[in-house]
Design brief:
Blueprint (H helix, E strand, L loop, with lengths): L10 E6 L3 H15 L4 E2 L8 E6 L4 H20 L4 E6 H5 L1 H7 L5 E3 L7 H10 L5 E3 L20 E5 L1 E2 L10 H5 L3 E2 L2 H13 L4 E5 L7 E2 L2 E2 H8 L7 E5 L8 H9 L6 E3 L7 H6 L6 H14 L4 E8 L6 H14 L3 E6 L7 H5 L6 H24 L5 E9 L6 E6 L4 E5 L11 E9 L3 E6 L2
Parallel strand pairs: 1-2, 1-3, 3-4, 4-5, 5-6, 7-10, 10-13, 14-15, 15-16, 19-21
Antiparallel strand pairs: 8-9, 11-12, 17-18, 17-20, 18-19, 20-21
Helix pairs in contact: 8-9, 12-14
The chain binds S-adenosyl-L-homocysteine (SAH) and FE3-S4 cluster.
S-adenosyl-L-homocysteine binds next to β15.
Length: 447
């Protein structure tokens, strides 16, 4: 039966900024549109609809989107019939600014309006006047019954939780993504099974505080137990857990299953208890250390990474030094280190003046990056001589004679293409490590 409102041949190009959740949301939008006859355009030049799926977590992410929008204005001047839409977190947060700074945008929709996308695009076509806006947040929406459009591949995402209830004082996410909701386990498992049937080998379960996942009686450990049972899925990852939502049951589940990747991204944010308290993170540095120790005790070879914010309001030299000390103590395999960026509407922007000057923030960040890079290099070089199991992803970007893939503990590993056999993405090989940088292991296949 033909779908109502189907427009065969309309081509959509979705450009994604920000986190993996946004990449997953873009696949969701692609899925919604494909049921109405839209197909994916390979680039914006060949599209009838261009959607920019945006991130609002830091100012720089937003500036990049405004830069991109002004670039697309020229294109829109040449082809005014093209619909240009801004979707996601920044659309939710900055609808007025977007329509002021980029009045040529036709559509502005937030992360809970994707189900209505086809109708909203219809409205854009019908009216040349003001942009069509839909930024209503919805306490219930988990996109039940919608199938994301995934490109063929070996590794993909499944959103298991939307929104966030933590309200860390620096963070815009709870305001732009609304309240925490768990997706029904049947939906998640159906997606994972579908991916396995299509040749996917790795799934990453996504949520803002993914381990606080709950749906009726199912908690996150229960969900993992079901996902690992799916035949064909060889690796299961998840991101990002919140430290105080880690239960002994979850740690035991991770330790029990080889399929659960030996890598964990565990955001610390700061090593200072004072700063953690003003950030309204719900743990102290000692509690975080204890959690890391417990996880390492249960899974000794686990790799870890973290997120850190430097220059949070009120951060003294001593507070900053505690963050440096925490990185030294824990020795994360790598870190995503950010300068504090004030976000309008958050508690911090209302109550905690951004006291530190840019130079101080900048020099703290640079020194921390330097220190973490050195730690990462030591850890990566420490792997020289060992053998790691790697899932082949494809050709190395640097040299077509090399292949690359991630180790079980998620380290990018590069090795020469074997002469005696053809390897394809998703194959597993054992690689003996002969050299390393602070981000990559280098080696050769041993079998
Ligand atoms: N719960 C999510 C957090 C999303 S934001 C997750 O763990 O993925 C991702 C990271 O961006 C945060 O962990 C934090 O380190 C950083 N971040 C968030 N708000 C920020 C801000 N206002 N300034 C600088 N960095 C920020
Ligand atoms: Fe943001 Fe804190 Fe939630 S960092 S996404 S409010 S856990």
């Amino acid at each position: 039966m033909p779908n109502v409102g189907q427009r065969p041949g309309r081509r959509v190009f979705i450009e994604t900024y920000g986190c993996q959740m946004n990449l997953a949301d873009s696949e969701l939008m692609g899925g919604v549109l494909s049921t109405r006859g839209y197909t994916a355009a390979p680039n914006h030049e060949e599209a009838d609809v261009i959607l920019i799926n945006t991130c609002a977590v830091r100012e720089r992410a937003e500036e990049r989107v405004f830069g991109r929008l002004s670039y697309l204005l020229r294109f829109k001047n040449e082809r005014p019939e093209v619909i240009l839409g801004v979707t996601g977190c920044m659309a939710e947060r900055l609808r007025e600014v977007i329509t002021e700074r980029a009045p040529y945008v036709d559509l502005v929709i937030g992360p809970d309006a994707y189900r209505r996308l086809p109708e909203l695009l219809e409205q854009c076509q019908e009216s040349d006047a003001d942009p069509v806006i839909d930024v209503k947040l919805d306490r219930e929406e988990t996109y039940k019954g919608l199938q994301p459009e995934r490109r063929p591949g070996i590794s993909g995402w499944v959103t298991v939780q939307r929104g966030c209830d933590k309200f860390c004082t620096f963070c815009i996410v709870p305001f732009v993504r609304g309240r925490e909701r768990g997706v029904a386990p049947e939906e998640i498992l159906a997606q994972c099974r579908d991916m396995a049937a299509r040749g996917y080998k790795e799934v990453t379960l996504l949520g803002q505080t993914v381990n606080s996942y709950r749906h009726e009686d199912t908690d996150f450990a229960d969900l993992l137990e079901e996902v690992v049972k799916i035949e064909g899925i060889e690796r299961v990852r998840f991101t990002s857990p919140y430290p105080t939502d880690f239960t002994p049951k979850l740690i035991a589940t991770m330790a029990k299953h080889d399929k659960i990747c030996n890598y964990l991204h565990l955001p610390l944010q700061s090593g200072s208890d004072q700063t953690l308290e003003t950030m309204k993170r719900l743990y102290t540095s000692e509690e975080f250390f204890k959690l890391v120790d417990d996880i390492r005790q249960a899974i000794p070879d686990i790799a870890m990474s973290t997120d850190i914010i430097v220059g949070f309001p009120g951060e003294t030299d001593e507070d900053y030094q505690k963050t440096v000390d925490a990185l030294e103590r824990i020795r994360f395999d790598f870190g995503y280190l950010f300068k504090y960026s004030e976000r309008d509407g958050t508690f911090a922007s209302r109550k905690l003046p951004d006291t530190l000057d840019e130079a101080t923030k900048g020099s703290r960040l640079a020194a921390l990056i330097k220190r973490q890079e050195a730690i990462s290099a030591e850890i990566f070089k420490g792997r020289i001589g060992s053998t790691v199991r790697v899932m082949v992803e494809g050709e190395s970007r640097r040299d077509a004679n090399d292949l690359c893939g991630r180790s079980d503990d998620f380290k990018m590993t590069v090795f020469p293409r074997p002469a005696d056999r053809e390897l394809k993405p998703g194959d597993f090989v054992n690689v003996r490590i002969t050299d390393a940088t602070s981000h990559t292991l280098l080696g050769e296949i041993i079998d």
